[in-house]
Amino acid sequence: MRNPTALIAEDEAALREQLRSRLASLWPDLRVVAEAETGLEAIAKFDDTNPDVVFLDIEMPGLSGLEVARKLQGRCHVVFVTAYDEHAVAAFEQGAVDYVLKPFETARLALAVRRVEQRIGQAPASLADLLRELATARNSRSYLRWINASQGTSVRLLTVDEVLYFQADTGYTRVVTAEGQWLIHKSLKELQDELDPSSFWTIHRATIVNANAIAGVVRDLRGRVSVTLRSRAEKLPVSDAHTHLFRQM
């Protein structure tokens, strides 16, 4: 009997490595045959390798994990990787599909591994009801909409839709719009957790860009990637860890 195989679909390289390492310890017979950084890449690599189980991040840029799961339904077992709150997690508890919360806890991952091990060789569970519940929870989640930003002694109320990008700036975060720049007393990490990930992409440890403000992608002679904006002249560098966001551009 052949060893079971898996695909890991997670856009953060450090989390992919962590998950792969813990799976090697908890499920030695499992072969990770492919890894993917985006939803589109996950589907392509699934078609290439046909794994038994997919560890699938719900929040990925472009095509979300929920959309990937719809396309893979009935073809494999799925373990969702999620940072969802307790309301969404309740949806998992009612079904035969498992989940792992980020940041990963070894005990919870071990439980997911035991459950999916028992299902290998059986028909994959139906995802239809779960996907509907997760989509509802995802759509009802409240993201940041307004920001109080300062410029000198003046304060302005900005909508997040006005923001072209956020950039870390020594104890503050710079908020850049088509009209100018402001500062807020909030870290980039705090903002990342409050912004809608489908619209605001982390492209560098110091920069979050509004995807709707991106005009194009450029690559210099050394292969370094930057994005250009619709309303400003500057280019924003993209770190190697985040270039996968622009492979389809």
Give the count of helical stretches. Answer: 7
How many separate domains?
Answer: 2
Helix content: 25-40%
Taking the sheet with the most strands, its summary is: 5 strands, parallel
Span between termini: 42 Å
CATH class of the largest domain: Alpha Beta
Class by SSE composition: alpha/beta
Level-2 CATH architecture of the largest domain: 3-Layer(aba) Sandwich
Query: In percent, how much strand structure appears in the residues?
Result: 25-35%
The ordered string of helix (H) and strand (E) elements is: EHEHEHEHEHHEEEEEHEEEEE
Strand order of the largest sheet: 2-1-3-4-5
Mean pLDDT: 86
Shape: elongated
Q: What's the alpha carbon Rg, rounded to whole Å?
A: 20 Å
As residue ranges, the low-confidence spans are none
What is the third-level CATH name, the topology of the largest domain? Rossmann fold
